[in-house]
Design brief:
The chain has eight helices and four strands. By secondary structure, the protein is α+β, with helices and mostly antiparallel strands. The chain has a domain of 137 residues. α2 crosses α3, α5 crosses α6 and α5 crosses α8.
């Protein structure tokens, strides 16, 4: 029994002999690839035609990959935008003027980033935003003047201490004279530092009473949330 596309077989063979790929013939004539494969399996192509088909295949693959990258980037942008919108919705219901909320936020941050073993309230980070937040809440909650803070730097071997002092002084609004000890990590000698990396800055306010309160607050809050969660689970 002849297939519904049988009358197109000569045209398909002719296009194949001209060097067209099976995919292009399928698209042009509307014949299923499975049918074309059976018709064209014995059609011989010249070396030149084979090279052309290979080059077209490679070019098509490159284009397909570029399209895929663009599609994935667009999807990522959409996901990031959705995440940002959800974050802003959450922020709208938080009372950022409430000092209890602010102190809890600082306590949780301190739990992860703050100094705990030394007898001082201090925090180190390579992210200026974290340290600005730290200083802003110290000022808001405890009246600490950021200009009184002392700073230390931990840098890579190829970084300039004076340049990095100027950078952090400008970012944090702390007088450059308040920057003391600078540690250069000799283990990094010979490897180039990325321009965006400005080392780790340690900001010290010295008041251990703040450290103690933040530590107790963060621990108590975590334990309370855990207790309530387990209690609900046990009740269910």
């Amino acid at each position: 029994m002849k297939s519904r596309w049988f009358e197109l077989k000569p045209a398909a063979i002719k296009l194949r002999k001209e060097g067209l790929s099976i995919g292009r013939i399928e698209h042009r004539l509307g014949i299923p690839r499975s049918t074309l494969s059976g018709w064209l399996k014995d059609v011989e192509l010249s070396q030149k035609q084979k090279r052309i088909l290979t080059e077209r295949w490679k070019n098509a693959l490159v284009k397909a990959r570029k399209k895929a990258v663009l599609w994935h980037n667009a999807q990522k942008e959409n996901r990031l935008l959705a995440a940002k919108q959800e974050a802003l919705k959450t922020l709208e219901i938080i009372d950022t003027a409430n000092k209890g909320t602010l102190e809890l936020a600082l306590a949780i941050l301190y739990m992860g980033e703050g100094t705990k073993k030394k007898v001082e309230t201090a925090m180190g980070s390579s992210d200026p935003l974290i340290l600005k937040f730290f200083l802003a809440l110290l000022k808001t909650l405890y009246g600490f003047d950021p200009k009184r803070a002392k700073c230390q730097l931990n840098l890579r071997a190829d970084q300039s201490p004076e340049k990095m002092k100027r950078f952090w002084s400008k970012e944090l609004g702390i007088p450059i004279n308040n920057f003391g000890y600078v540690n250069l990590d000799k283990r990094t000698a010979g490897s180039k530092t990325y321009p965006y990396y400005k080392g780790v800055c340690y900001v010290i306010c010295g008041n251990v009473a703040i450290q103690r309160k933040l530590t107790y607050l963060s621990e108590a809050f975590c334990k309370e949330i855990i207790r309530k969660t387990w209690a609900v689970g046990a009740a269910g």
